[in-house]
Design a protein that fits this description.
single chain, 432 residues, alpha/beta, FAD/NAD(P)-binding domain, D-Amino Acid Oxidase, Chain A, domain 2, 2 domains, eight-stranded mixed β-sheet, six-stranded mixed β-sheet, 14 helices, 19 strands, 37% helix, globular, binds flavin-adenine dinucleotide, flavoprotein, FAD_monoxygenase
Length: 432
């Protein structure tokens, strides 16, 4: 691919911004990330990936996949190699809690977030990132390029803006103003997150449940666990549904005590309560916000577009939000790198194609994730406490997430682009 004359600015260097920048850089597109923090950083502990995400990593750039392979941790028992999660009744106190197993071609594939980011950072030369740059606004300059304004008073210019600035995206707010999608809403679920040593976890729940990914279901709450750090650590996330509103929209976490977690899961079985006992005495509660109440009407306007959580921030119950960020990066990098894309007008077409091929799938994930989270908590509409229905819902929806041909999606997007730019290729319209 011939080098490009234009430059794109990525706002935000999380998984979406970084994988997109890496994919663009390795396709010869000039790219700069503007990140508000002083360095790249991920918050939280583990993130696990589904098969579509792994395909997308390979497609973005081989190094994105090797980084994952280097640090991924699966289930520790060979017999559980293809198990995504074993589902348990986490509520009733009984000896045999097993409900059903959900499998996948890659089984459980978790990484420690900060370690994955450390590996990704190595794939982007440092001159492509600027730190301490919190976007405040943008406007066109006299030549038709964009002038970006940052809170530290500095400015930069660019030909196109890609908002990868997460769930509370400033780019989305600037694009949509008073539209309700400017602000994500509380899903009425929050989560306690903890990391336990494998030794402690085995004492709490026994070897099988500590060394392999488990979902402990209950009424109005569920806990997921999977090993990270090559099996030295167990990642624990316990979700609770509440009727209350979240106290402060501006803060996604609030301080809590271990006793609060134990109170929320007071009537649960010993697996759940024993694992909660391993939490630190002082911990954070994470609010789960999403864009499900007010989906974004379009991911692109002119030479501005939004990607990842900025476009389709989802609750985490499918474990697919970050994977969809990487899918976005695979599609958008192929589009921008296409030889026919030369001018700002071409970039507008690129972004409109990106919107057309990605929005339905992105917005579907947000809705489906909320539903499946309810299924884990026996409050899914039409599903309730019927485990065979819960299992069926998970398998059907996981199939829609995982069983895609990412290379095919990228090829199809480029075909549409070429159709619209007047080259060869076919405009087949959007697909999920
Ligand atoms: C509890 C929990 C568990 C999850 N588990 C999984 C999982 O197992 N699997 C999975 O696939 N997904 C999971 N997800 C979802 C996943 O974490 C997100 O979809 C993904 O991390 C979003 O990445 P992003 O790059 O779009 O946004 P972010 O990671 O939020 O990155 C946005 C970046 O933009 C920067 N930024 C923000 N505003 C500005 C500004 N104005 N100017 C400059 N920079 C700015 C931020 O500092 C940040 O670096 C989970 C989410 C949660 C909450």
């Amino acid at each position: 691919m011939a080098p490009k004359d234009f430059e794109v600015a990525i706002i935000g260097g999380g998984i979406a911004g970084l994988t997109l920048a890496i994919a663009l850089h390795h396709r010869g597109v000039n790219v700069v990330i503007y990140e508000q923090a002083a360095h790249f950083a991920e918050i939280g502990a583990g993130v696990s990936f589904t098969p579509n995400a792994v395909q997308a990593m390979k497609h973005c750039y081989s190094g994105v996949y090797s980084a994952f392979e280097k640090i991924r941790t699966g289930n520790l028992w060979p017999s559980k190699k293809n198990v995504w999660f074993d589902y348990h009744d986490g509520y009733h106190d009984k000896d045999e809690t097993f409900a059903f197993s959900i499998t996948s071609s890659i089984g459980q594939a978790g990484v420690h977030r900060a370690r994955y980011l450390d590996e990704l950072v190595k794939l982007l030369p440092e001159e492509h990132a600027r730190f301490g740059k919190r976007l405040e606004g943008f406007e066109r300059d006299g030549s038709g390029r964009w002038r970006l304004r940052f809170e530290d008073g500095s400015e930069a210019t660019t030909d196109a803006i890609i908002g990868c600035d997460g769930i509370k995206s400033k780019v989305r707010q600037l694009l949509y103003g008073d539209h309700p999608c400017s602000h994500p809403t509380f899903t009425h679920k929050y989560a306690y997150r903890a990391l336990a040593t494998m030794e402690d976890a085995i004492k709490a729940v026994g070897e099988e449940k500590a060394k392999n990914a488990c979902m402990h279901m209950g009424p109005g709450g569920h806990m997921l666990t999977f090993p990270v750090n090559h099996g030295q650590t167990l990642n624990v996330v316990a979700f609770h549904t509440t009727e209350s509103d979240w106290p402060d929209y501006n803060k996604l976490t609030r301080p809590a005590k271990r006793e609060d977690a134990l109170r929320d899961f007071a009537n649960y079985g010993p697996d759940v309560t024993n694992l909660l006992q391993l939490c630190q005495p002082n911990l954070d509660v994470w609010a789960i916000f999403h864009l499900g109440d007010h989906p974004v009407p379009t991911y692109a306007k002119g030479t501005i577009c939004i990607v990842g959580d900025a476009a389709h921030a989802t609750s985490p119950h499918h474990g697919a939000g970050a994977g969809f960020c990487i899918e976005d990066a695979a599609v958008l990098s192929d589009l921008l790198a296409d030889d026919r894309v030369r001018t700002q007008q071409d970039i507008e077409v690129v972004f409109s194609v990106f919107n057309d091929v990605r929005r339905e799938r992105g917005n579907w994930l947000v809705q489906s994730s909320q539903h499946i989270g309810n299924c884990y908590e026996w409050i899914g509409q039409g599903v309730g406490e019927d485990f065979s229905k819960v299992e069926n819902e998970i398998n059907t929806r996981n199939g829609m997430i995982s069983d895609v041909d990412v290379q095919g999606l990228c090829r199809e997007a480029v075909g549409i682009l070429r159709g619209r730019l007047g080259g060869d290729g076919m405009d087949k319209g959007a697909r999920l």
